[in-house]
Design goal:
Elements: E1 3-9, E2 15-16, E3 21-24, E4 38-43, E5 49-53, H1 65-77, E6 84-86, H2 89-92, E7 121-123, H3 124-133, H4 137-147, H5 151-164, H6 187-197, H7 201-207, E8 211-214, E9 223-226, E10 242-250, E11 254-263, E12 266-275, H8 278-293, E13 298-303, E14 308-313, E15 320-323, E16 328-332, E17 340-346, E18 358-366, E19 371-379, H9 387-403
Parallel strand pairs: 1-14
Antiparallel strand pairs: 2-17, 3-17, 4-5, 4-12, 6-7, 8-9, 10-11, 11-12, 13-16, 14-15, 15-19, 17-18, 18-19
Helix pairs in contact: 1-4, 1-5, 1-6, 3-4, 4-5
Length: about 400
Amino acid sequence: MYSTSFKGLPMRQWCWFFCLVGNICSGRPLEIEVSAPSAILMNADTGSVLFEKDAHTPSYPASITKIATALFALDHKKAPLDRPVTISHESLKTKPAKGREYPSHWLETDGTKMGLMKGETVSFETLLYGLMLVSGNDAANAIAESLSDTIPGFVEEMNAYLRSLGCKNTQFRNPHGLHHPEHYTTAYDICLATKKALTIPKFKEIVSTLFYTKPKTNKQPATELRQFNPLLKPGRFYYPNAIGVKTGYTSAAKNTLVAAAEHEGRTLIAVVLGCEKREERYNDVRHLFDAAFAEEKKRRRLIASDHLFTRQVEGAKLSLQAALGKEFFIEFFPAEEPICKAFIHWDIPTLPIKKDQRVGEVRLIDQEGKILKKEDLLAVSELSPKFFFGLKQKFLRRWNSFSH
């Protein structure tokens, strides 16, 4: 039987003590090769990074920019889904030729569009589906212009919002991702943005949708929008655990992809940037997901069930002894073992203390101060006050009741 002692602390005081065990940190990144020059794999719930390759190197993102546009519109602007948006001429302006300098949000003739027309009125929800399913650059501009005074103004606000999320190496010049030399992000930054986006139910619904019917408008009949992401559709690159998110391509950015997958309650996000070939991006994320989901969860005991914690309590005849009564353990996947420490947090009740009465708890804390797990500490035996201390307590209780 093991024991840990603490002395000289008064009753009813909440106290932090030095950790009971040292840093728990032996996570092993996944050993896998990817063709992408920049990549990352992250747990969408915890933010743990399971794999990274030049994940903080700025790169051109292409259409995965649209993840940030949808996130900013839904999370920060909070536009109603049924809000009508009338498409302006500005949203549809197109560069007449390449090689000349035009506003960075102007469309390109060979860029992807959902087919909006000037003066057409559609719902904000329809624009979101056009943005994420068919990668509509026109939808991106329409969303931006409808939510800010100007499209550049929307992008400026979006950049500030992304910085608030921790995206420190991101600068966007338009809401759609068409190439601009000053439009860039990193695998890590866009992964952070996607992590936030996946907490929004509507975003998750949209990026996992295979078909969406764009309702009839004042300009066009109803049309069907089809999901482009082949990870979601039966075929060569189909991945059964995939839940989205977005593909991208420009000649400068090459092939980019942000993908998310769920397996047994675990959601992972993979990002690959700069792939030379289209199929490489799908193969890379599939390999990353397969390697992570093949891991078996490990269990590490931190404190034995018979470990005794001992401390002095003011006015008590004996020292207080407390125990958990069961093992204190942590479960984790090898590639994302958390950096954490176990602490004891006393909460001593007024004497006398009964056997099995709660006297505190053991907490497992990660680097950010988040409580990963906690268990109650229970008194091993009854603890009575000293005779004169007990008389003092009775006197004070009677005096307080009399004075009131």
